[in-house]
Amino acid sequence: MLTPKKKPLKAKPKAKATKRNYTLSGEGKYDKSPKRMADNRARKKARYAMEKGGSVTKGDGKDVDHKDGNPRNNAKSNLRVQSASTNRSYPRNKKAGKK
Q1: How many domains does the chain have?
Q2: Residue range 68-97, pLDDT digits in tens
């Protein structure tokens, strides 16, 4: 039985080595906007306050949830501890908010 001849594989062209641009003009622009950074700082403050109070510990798999969805409202009455899967399981768009 005769076997067909296989064509030799061509070498793939190598990609040019380029230096990544991590400034505000690229893909990280959204997360580096002043509003997003302020929201993130407020979330971290809430987590820290709950850690100081003993409600959560580092690496426990829990999230500090803002009941009204506003990360800058760090009133004690607005914060609660939830599992990460529960806290991250609702869609964040105009039509679906926290229930």
Answers
A1: 1
A2: 889 999 999 999 999 999 888 877 776 665
